[in-house]
Specification:
Elements lengths: L5 E6 L2 E6 L9 H16 L5 E6 L4 E3 L4 H5 L3 H20 L4 E5 L2 E3 L1 H7 L3 E5 L5 E2 L11 H11 L1 H10 L2 E2 L1 H7 L4 E3 L1 H16 L3 H34 L2 H12 L2
Parallel strand pairs: 2-3, 3-5, 4-6, 5-7, 6-8, 7-10
Antiparallel strand pairs: 1-2, 8-9
Helix pairs in contact: 1-3, 3-9, 5-6, 5-9
Length: about 250
């Protein structure tokens, strides 16, 4: 089964969702809609016991938000996109079926966020960069990702990652706890599938309850302030400083 923006394959009762938005897999409304629909449909399929999120190419897992497209949107349309993106991320975070990120290429900003919403992250060896560079664009790290990262690696390390806006190579990302395994690129997807299968091989019901216990307080923390934080992000996105920085970023595309 192939869709325009997300290709779906099945292997050993695991759905492999391949981001398929050109080489960079830039995140816009079309990709959010396609990925959200794919995740929901596979989560509801009784024949699917786990999922892997990866890319259709080995250069980019995802470059992050589609800045040239999103920059041109007015506030109403951008707000609609941003709220949909956050709800998709929450859906990934709380999915009752195992979700493993198979990172075969660079996972930048929004791409890094997608991987953080998964249960495990396997990344290709070599110079595959991952990180949250939002501060360099004049905007904060989206609140959903901020909360997940702090929970995952601790407040101090998360502070350093987000305040610096730098990109990490696989070894540093693993040292910090942002990724779980580093693998040869040709093994990333197969090992991710095996992990998803392993996680669902005993009891899907038990896995769902264990995961719910792990993310329940995190989801509550996020949803309590999400609307307020979304407003703050959108205000920052349309600020004069961010407009200048985003234009500079667009010029490098």
């Amino acid at each position: 089964m192939t869709e325009e923006f997300v290709a779906i394959e099945h292997q050993n009762q695991v759905a492999i969702l391949k981001l398929n938005q050109g080489v960079t897999n830039a995140i816009n409304g079309d990709l959010v809609h396609a990925l959200d629909s794919a995740i929901k449909s596979q989560a509801a399929d009784p024949d699917v016991h786990g999922m892997v999120l990866t890319s259709s190419n080995r250069k980019f897992f995802s470059i992050g938000l589609d800045i040239p497209h999103l920059f041109a949107l007015g506030e109403k349309n951008f707000r609609s996109f941003y709220q949909s993106f956050n709800q998709m991320c929450l859906g990934m975070l709380t999915s009752t079926k195992p979700l493993v990120a198979g990172i075969t290429g660079h996972a930048i900003a929004g791409g890094c966020i997608l991987s953080l919403c998964c249960d495990y992250r396997f990344i290709s060896e070599g110079r595959k960069l991952i990180g949250l560079n939002e501060i360099k664009l004049g905007v904060p790290v989206p609140y959903v990702a901020d909360c997940i990262l702090r929970k995952l690696i601790g407040h101090r390390l998360a502070r350093d990652v987000m305040d610096s806006g730098g990109f990490l190579e696989p070894e540093e990302a693993q040292r910090l706890g942002m990724v779980d395994r580093i693998l040869p690129v040709e093994e990333v997807v197969s090992q991710s599938v095996e992990k998803a299968r392993e996680l669902s091989s005993d009891s899907l019901e038990a896995f769902a309850l264990i995961k719910s216990s792990r993310v329940h307080a995190l989801k509550r923390e996020i949803t309590a302030q999400l609307a307020e934080r979304e407003n703050a992000f959108i205000k920052c996105w349309f600020s004069d400083d961010a407009r200048v920085r985003l234009k500079e970023a667009i010029s490098k595309y």
